[in-house]
Amino acid sequence: MSAYVETTYDRCPFNCAECGGAVWLLARSGRTCSYKGERPFTVPAALAIPTCDDCDAEWIDDEIASVLDEACAAQEGGVR
């Protein structure tokens, strides 16, 4: 699965382990994440993260975590 997708309507092949809701690949603006315990960093709007449509739980795998690390490091001004 590629972390960047054209559409935000791709259904993931699993349900949410938190609530049982449907999980969809969702790319949207306005998301943040913490990085190294510092201030919140902006998640790239084009990054599709599997997200539950009921409870909004995000399911981040190694590939997505790597993209998030790189994006946060770039915002921090660090080299990764």
Q: Strand order of the main beta sheet, please?
A: 1-2-5
Q: What's the helical proportion of residues? A: 10-25%
How far apart the termini lie comes to: 23 Å
Task: Note the total helix count.
Answer: 1
* CATH fold-type name: Ubiquitin-like (UB roll)
Question: For the record, what CATH class applies?
Answer: Alpha Beta
> Which series of helices and strands comes N to C?
EEEEEH
- Given helix and strand content, the structural type is alpha+beta
How many discrete domains? 1
Poorly predicted runs are none
Rg (C-alpha, Å): 13 Å
CATH architecture: Roll
Q: Percent of residues in beta strands? A: 15-25%
In round numbers, the mean pLDDT is 84
| Largest β-sheet summary | 3 strands, antiparallel
Number of strands: 5
Estimate the global geometry from the Cα principal axes.
elongated
Describe the structure using short key phrases.
80 residues, alpha+beta, Ubiquitin-like (UB roll), 3-stranded antiparallel sheet, two-stranded antiparallel sheet, 5 strands, 19% helix
Question: Which helices and strands, and how do they pair?
Answer:
Elements: E1 10-15, E2 22-26, E3 32-33, E4 41-42, E5 49-52, H1 62-76
Antiparallel strand pairs: 1-2, 2-5, 3-4
